[in-house]
Amino acid sequence: MMDWGGGWYGMIFGPPIMILVLAVVIALAVLLVRWLGGPWPGGQPQQHQPRERTPLDILKERYARGEIDKEEFEERRRVLGD
């Protein structure tokens, strides 16, 4: 007859395997919900693209820094057509 005395293996390996199986099931459920739910509304911050500076913007900045005076600013603005 066979020896049935090896039942202690289930007591040693059963709980860790059960925890592992439960963790895999939970991970799969979370991945499935995220995949079916689409992107999170607040997940990814929007990348701020700096707008391209126009020649008039550059001229205004130079005037604000004091690099050019009012007369030169007005003359160059007229040349730019604004």
Automatic annotation (TrEMBL):
Transmembrane feature ranges: 12-33
| Protein's UniProt keywords contain Transmembrane | yes
Please report the name of this protein according to its UniProt entry. Answer: SHOCT domain-containing protein
Residue ranges constituting the SHOCT domain according to the UniProt record: 54-80
Q: Which UniProt keywords apply?
A: Membrane, Transmembrane, Transmembrane helix
One Pfam family hit: SHOCT
